[in-house]
Specification:
The chain has about 260 residues and is of the alpha/beta class. The protein has helices at about 20-25, 60-70, 75-80, 95-105, 135-150, 165-170, 185-190, 240-260; strands at about 1-5, 10, 30-35, 35-40, 50-55, 85-90, 110-115, 155, 175-180, 200, 215-220, 220-225. It folds into two domains: about 1-75, Beta-grasp domain (Ubiquitin-like (UB roll), Roll), CATH 3.10.20.30; about 80-260, NAD(P)-binding Rossmann-like Domain (Rossmann fold).
Length: about 260
């Protein structure tokens, strides 16, 4: 029978178990991932199963690292999303968090665009660090993403997004993420960008219930994440918890679209 071991096909005798495979090929492995889930008990292996053998604290070779990063994915997911391109317009609290999530799952190519620099008030919710203050967000986020997953292709553009350049920047994407702060910027993207599905956001300020943040589909290709009501205003600021909920819901909608679930 044929299984995938660390994303590579190998042949095994019928009746081989997970522990037998470990003892034969990597006896020092102490994390066994079987079809996307870490398991502690021995199980019989079957045709098409996916197995990852991991040694805690060990530094894998370059050839193994990407496979081990994707070890907890559902079988077949990594192969699909590795071929995808996603655009992210705006790299603030939403966009930087969406980018981190998509880098961690291994989306093949991320096209990132923002004209701003990292400033102190960003640090309460955005994926940057104190020593990156003053840097262009594209430069700072690119450095952080490469530390997380160097196997993704990143295209970063330090530019203000406008109707006359949005097609040139994002014309090749499979899914577009709208991650602006201002309502006029959001409207500009929704009106100007044509083609791929758009995952936008509206209403995630304050500290209200996270359960009020949902996903609504509008028309054939627009998904809006948020409560559609709670914008930033005096007495209702933007903070990491609700912004993070919305950003990760955006990332999950992107994943579902890429996998054909939406």
């Amino acid at each position: 029978m044929t299984i995938l071991l660390n994303e590579k096909a190998i042949e095994l005798e019928a009746g081989t178990t997970l522990f037998q495979l470990r003892d034969r090929l990597k006896p020092d492995a102490d994390v066994l991932v079987y079809n996307g889930a870490a398991v502690a008990d021995d199980v019989p292996l079957h045709e098409g199963d996916s197995v990852n053998l991991i040694q805690r604290g060990g530094i894998p070779c370059v050839e193994e690292l990407e496979a081990l990063m994707a070890a907890r994915h559902t079988p077949g997911v990594h192969a699909k999303i590795k071929q995808a391109t996603v655009g992210i317009a705006g790299l603030g609290g939403l966009g930087s968090s969406v980018a981190v999530a998509l880098a961690r799952i291994g989306v093949g190519r991320l096209i990132l665009a923002d004209f701003d620099v990292v400033e102190p008030s960003n640090l309460n919710r955005q994926q940057y660090f104190i020593d990156q203050l003053g840097q262009p967000k594209t430069e700072a986020l690119l450095a952080n993403l490469r530390r997380i997953n160097p196997y993704v292709t990143y295209d970063a553009h330090c530019v203000r997004i406008a109707p006359d350049n949005i097609g040139e920047l994002f014309g090749e994407v499979d899914v577009m993420v709208e991650a602006f702060d201002r309502a006029d910027q959001k409207a500009m993207l929704l009106q100007s960008f044509q083609g791929a599905p758009i995952v936008a956001a509206s209403g995630m300020a304050g500290y209200g219930s996270g359960e009020s943040i949902g996903v609504r589909k509008m028309g054939d290709r627009v998904y809006i994440v948020g409560d559609l009501e709670t914008g930033a205003a005096p007495g209702c600021g933007l903070m990491a918890p609700r912004v993070g909920i919305a950003a990760h819901m955006q990332a999950n909608v992107v994943l579902r679209i890429l996998l054909g679930e939406e």
